[in-house]
Amino acid sequence: MPLFAVIAHDVPNSIEKRLAVRPRHVARLEKLHAEGRIIVAGPLPTSHDTPPTGFSGSLFVLDFPDRASMDAWFAEEPFVLEGIYASIEVKPFLQTFLKQS
User: Domain 3-46+56-93 is classified in which CATH homologous superfamily?
Assistant: First the structure.
């Protein structure tokens, strides 16, 4: 299936709302991961502080049959529905390298 690189950009000062909605967001991602559709996914913190003091968005590389089905999945994403993601940038992706453990 085609791979898509997705950068979802947060609204400014999203951390409190992001943390409140995170359990619903993670539950959907866990289901997508169990289906084998997540190549990589994670948040983009504004710095490497622990714990993070803020986020600029999220990065995903996802495996969907087509762009329309991926867009439909994102339409139900809690971070979209709750206004945490200001915009979503999508590009076709070809995986060339994979880190070996």
Answer: Dimeric alpha+beta barrel (3.30.70.1060)
